[in-house]
Amino acid sequence: MIRPRNEHTLAGVCEVRGRGYWSGREVRVRFCPAAAGSGIRFVRADLPDRPSCLAISCNVTPGSLRTNLRDGDASFEMIEHVMAALYGLEVDNCVVEIDAEEIPGMDGSAKDYVHALQSVGMVVQAAARKRYLINRNFRVGDEHSWIEAMPVCDGHPVYEYWLDYGDHSPIRPQSYSGSLSAHSFARELAPARTFVTAEQVDRLRREGVGTHVGPRDLLVFDDSGLVDNRLRYDNECARHKALDLIGDLALTGFDLVGHFVSNRGGHRLNAELATQLAEVAQVNGWLSVTPDGSEPSVVECMRAIDTRQDVSKMPWGRVA
């Protein structure tokens, strides 16, 4: 059984530079230490007054092929790989400064983010890390595409992905299943890259999106297979989908202990499950949040969803 742990933040500041997949802009991301209990907060360093957004599921906005966040004037695109890297390495409190709207895609994986975070190390903080132990089954989706969260006997979180796009897809059916730890995440999942079909690339370019991105920037599959690249794992596509699942479920704002199985799921279903788990944790009293007065809590945001309130107008203060 995994022992409860205290929260972690970074021991120093690190940064990553790259281009946004969608915008093509050069972007700098700085990871900075943050106070215990503050969570992951994205900051727009390029805008007046540096607007920010807490990385929790109630701030997710719809996006195609990626996860986006918005809170007022602060909007961020394609945050899932950064969230996966932070969650996978157990960095609980961090300020993520970005000088554009879109997080850089790098090589389509979380590898560069993991290397940057590992380069500065972590410090243990006084606050206990909040955890939610899955004690019954949860399911979102339909018979074609679904995600299920189930209890685990040994207390070690397991993430599993089943990928099958049918007989006509150039991407063959494959799966991944593994127990999550900081070591296993860095070794087994962080290097797994984003993938698309050549048909998707052509469609995006006709729309004027991602015109600078080629087969060396991510995995592209045509009818003959992988284009001008080599796989890092035989099941790299399924591993990357598991990485996305971890990054999106990190938006609950607390550790999850359970067995998570996704069958052809994507960002929309990931966000739906994250919201459901956060709501259930709040209702059952298994999540205790006491923010320092400068940030809205997970509980406040979930109540805002339940009552259809504007999250930006929620009161700021302590919640027992």
Relevant terms:
320 residues; alpha+beta; Ribosomal Protein S5, domain 2; five-stranded mixed beta sheet; 7 helices; disordered C terminus
Task: Provide structural commentary.
- The chain has 320 residues and is of the alpha+beta class.
- The protein has a single domain (6-313), classed as lpxc deacetylase, domain 1 (Ribosomal Protein S5, domain 2), CATH 3.30.230.20.
- 24% of the residues lie in helices and 28% in strands.
- It has seven helices and 20 strands.
- The chain has helices at 80-88, 111-120, 182-189, 198-206, 236-249, 267-283, 298-306, and strands at 6-10, 14-19, 26-33, 40-44, 52-54, 60-61, 68-71, 74-77, 94-98, 122-128, 131-133, 138-141, 146-150, 158-163, 174-179, 195-197, 219-222, 225-226, 255-257, 259-263.
- The protein has a five-stranded mixed beta sheet, covered by helices on one side.
- A hairpin with a 2-residue loop joins strand 17 (219-222) and strand 18 (225-226).
- Helix 1 crosses helix 2.
- The protein is globular, with a radius of gyration of 19 Å.
- The chain starts with 5 loop residues before the first strand and ends in a 14-residue tail after the last helix.
- The model is unreliable at 287-320 (pLDDT under 50).
